[in-house]
């Protein structure tokens, strides 16, 4: 049991160490532009991706670095993408908000809120005709629950019993605005009933809870039972973007968030179960070592060639 | 392009030609899907998809009235190796889900550095017909022509309705095929079906003439031809060059035509400002064609489209107006 939790811890540390390194590189200069970090939300991708099959299609949002990493996309290629290198996972054409690695079952981030939901329906639809057992997973935030495309996708998937899992990462803020101020009914999972699909609000800071519900939802999907909505409750410890003044936070809010964030919680649990502190700390060191090496290797790669900027527009 | 059947000649109307192309494509490309609002069991509001559901079963289906879901799922299915052919019942409705066309479909190949593609075909129809309202009359091709990553065509004959759709669906990029509902039930013509089709691009010379070149597309083609016939009686030779493919656009052929007659008029049903006519004029100008008179654009004025036929007719270019403006261009 503690073995799996140690594996979760390592997977979460990989994401957090990556995001922290990204923040440093963004502030120091090698990374430019808009970057949205998922620090505090790592348990959701770690739990969910653990039970995905290679042929499953995953569609994330611009806060999707953690999902790419959990899907096994090499972090060096992600760093390279962020730094505009030729070795970037999209060859420098995607950037932070459009990581795409289909060969890892990662069909891309998206910087349009909610846009991935209908696209995931299409991946699921394709599976009905290509003989695969593919399920599609679309990830979005609480804010996307107020986007028309997401409503259309939920109904579309439900009407046709498509094998789609809708994963809502509810971090309580739609960008800079509390979701509670933008909806009348705060339990977003309850909306699933309106589309005739099951919906669950779960602890998104617990990788094991996410894994359990995801496995169930995938099983239902693959058996022809149609889509499921999982509302994963979580909190980001950082701003919406790097540079967000976070003046919407209440006093003491971040301290409370830090006490229940997934890595702190898991470490606490492991300690309580008698796992030696040194063993727990070694996990963080291992992750940070991997991330540092990947960042350095990415930085050493050549920039994307300007002569190729017009390539790949048409067949 | 695989050839699954021998060419044969059939008498088909424009809508029937689209239907024949869809039947062929469903047969020769097992990865195709046809779906959209009312296209399955009802066979489409214009009857264009009639019979497909019966022949191809689950690969043809009706959807909710959800353009974002239709287009978005087509993008997703296309990324996964399907070749969806989706219908947006009226071009005006594409505006509801422009995100999926512009931000999503058009970006797939480029931002993935060619590792993913989105070979979907969007069939729609546009333009004014008597009594159509402001939200069912717009000509939106210029909007889509401003979007790199999309292919756009507008067939005006049964043969092109067939050929362009076959080419579009075989294309590995997103293609928008804009049909015209005033043409759906036009006269049957001989259409070669089943054989190879011309490659993407090119022009069609619809009327010969050496005094002035009229570049046009869509249903306007036939009003321009009518105008050319009127002017022929007055001794003015009008060459009507139709460009059924707007992206890729055959600039070379258009520049050559304008260079031969040294006069240029562009006719489209869309309103003039920001219309693709401006782009055509700019390309000819930039190519240095020594025109004898300033080029002109003929289109709807920059107004909303009224429902009353008598009001709409006052705005849309017709043969008389085209003939009048072209006559002035030639005679001064």
Automatic annotation (TrEMBL), chain A:
Keywords: Oxidoreductase, Pyruvate, Thiamine pyrophosphate
GO molecular function: magnesium ion binding; pyruvate dehydrogenase (acetyl-transferring) activity
Database matches in InterPro entries: DH_E1 (IPR001017), PDH_E1_Alpha_Subunit (IPR050642), THDP-binding (IPR029061)
Record flagged with keyword Oxidoreductase: yes
Name the record gives this protein: Pyruvate dehydrogenase E1 component alpha subunit
UniProt-listed Enzyme Commission number(s): 1.2.4.1
Enzyme class: oxidoreductase
Segments forming a coiled coil: none
Pfam annotation, one family: E1_dh
Any GO BP: pyruvate decarboxylation to acetyl-CoA
Organism annotation: Thermocatellispora tengchongensis
Top-level division of the source organism's lineage: Bacteria
From TrEMBL, chain B:
GO molecular function: magnesium ion binding; oxidoreductase activity
Pfam families noted in UniProt: Transket_pyr, Transketolase_C
Domain Transketolase-like pyrimidine-binding: 12-186
Keywords: Oxidoreductase, Pyruvate, Thiamine pyrophosphate
Names of required cofactors: thiamine diphosphate
Domain of life: Bacteria
SMART domains per UniProt: Transket_pyr (SM00861)
Gene3D superfamilies linked to this entry: 3.40.50.920, 3.40.50.970
Classification via CDD domains: TPP_PYR_E1-PDHc-beta_like
InterPro entries tied to this protein: THDP-binding, Transketo_C/PFOR_II, Transketolase-like_Pyr-bd, Transketolase_C
Name under which the protein is recorded: Pyruvate/2-oxoglutarate/acetoin dehydrogenase E1 component
């Amino acid at each position: 049991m503690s073995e799996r939790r140690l594996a979760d811890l390592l997977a979460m540390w990989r994401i957090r160490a990556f995001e922290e390194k990204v923040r440093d590189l963004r502030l120091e200069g090698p990374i430019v532009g808009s970057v949205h970090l998922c620090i505090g939300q790592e348990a959701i991708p770690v739990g969910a991706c653990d039970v995905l099959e290679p042929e499953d299609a995953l569609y994330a949002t611009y806060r999707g670095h953690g999902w790419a990493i959990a899907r096994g996309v090499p972090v060096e290629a992600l760093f390279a993408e962020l730094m505009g290198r030729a070795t970037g996972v999209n060859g420098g054409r995607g950037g932070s908000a459009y990581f795409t690695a289909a060969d890892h079952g990662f069909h891309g981030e998206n910087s349009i809120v909610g846009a991935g939901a209908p696209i995931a329906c299409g991946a699921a639809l394709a599976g009905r005709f290509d003989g695969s057992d593919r399920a599609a997973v679309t990830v979005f935030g609480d804010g996307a629950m107020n986007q028309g495309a997401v409503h259309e996708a939920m109904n579309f998937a439900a009407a046709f019993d498509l094998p789609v899992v809708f994963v809502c990462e509810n971090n309580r803020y739609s960008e800079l605005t509390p979701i509670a101020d933008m909806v009348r009914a705060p339990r977003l999972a309850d909306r699933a009933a309106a589309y005739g699909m099951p919906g669950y609000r779960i602890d998104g800071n617990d990788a094991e809870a996410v894994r359990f519900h995801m496995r169930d939802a995938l099983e239902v999907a693959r058996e022809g039972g149609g889509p499921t909505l999982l509302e994963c409750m979580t909190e980001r410890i950082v701003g919406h973007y790097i540079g967000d003044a976070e003046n919407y936070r209440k006093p003491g809010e971040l301290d409370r968030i830090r006490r229940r964030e997934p890595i702190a919680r898991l470490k606490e649990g492991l300690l309580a179960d008698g796992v030696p502190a040194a063993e727990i700390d070694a996990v963080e060191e291992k992750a940070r070592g991997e991330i540092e090496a990947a960042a350095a290797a990415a930085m050493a790669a050549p920039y994307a060639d300007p002569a190729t900027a017009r390539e790949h527009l048409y067949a | 392009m695989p050839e699954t059947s021998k060419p044969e000649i059939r008498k088909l109307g424009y809508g029937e030609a689209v239907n024949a192309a869809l039947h062929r494509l469903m047969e020769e490309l097992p990865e195709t899907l046809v779906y959209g609002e009312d296209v399955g069991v009802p066979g489409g509001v214009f009857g264009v998809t009639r019979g497909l559901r019966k022949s191809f079963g689950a690969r043809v289906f009706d959807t909710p009235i959800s353009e974002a879901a239709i287009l978005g799922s087509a993008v997703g299915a296309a990324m996964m190796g399907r070749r969806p052919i989706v219908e947006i019942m009226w071009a005006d409705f594409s505006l509801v889900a422009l995100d999926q066309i512009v931000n999503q479909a058009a970006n797939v190949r480029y931002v993935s550095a060619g590792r993913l593609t989105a070979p979907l075909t969007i069939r729609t129809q546009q333009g004014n017909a008597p009594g159509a309202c402001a939200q069912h009359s717009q000509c939106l091709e210029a909007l889509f022509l401003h979007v790199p990553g999309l292919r756009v065509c507008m067939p005006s004959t049964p043969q092109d309705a067939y050929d362009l759709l076959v080419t579009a669906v075989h294309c590995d990029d997103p293609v928008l095929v804009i049909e015209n509902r005033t043409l759906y039930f036009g006269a049957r013509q001989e259409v070669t079906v089943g054989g190879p089709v011309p490659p993407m691009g090119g022009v069609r010379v619809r009327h010969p003439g050496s005094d002035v070149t009229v570049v046009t597309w869509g249903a306007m083609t036939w009003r321009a031809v009518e105008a050319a016939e009127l002017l022929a009686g007055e001794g003015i030779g009008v060459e009507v060059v139709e460009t059924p493919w707007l992206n890729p656009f055959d600039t070379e052929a258009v520049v050559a035509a304008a260079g031969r007659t040294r006069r240029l008029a562009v006719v489209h049903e869309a309103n003039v400002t920001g219309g693709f006519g401006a782009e055509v004029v700019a390309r000819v100008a930039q190519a240095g064609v020594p025109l004898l008179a300033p080029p002109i654009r003929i289109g709807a004025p920059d107004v909303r489209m009224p429902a009353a036929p008598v009001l709409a007719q006052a705005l849309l270019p017709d043969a008389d107006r085209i003939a009048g403006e072209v006559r002035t261009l030639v005679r001064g």
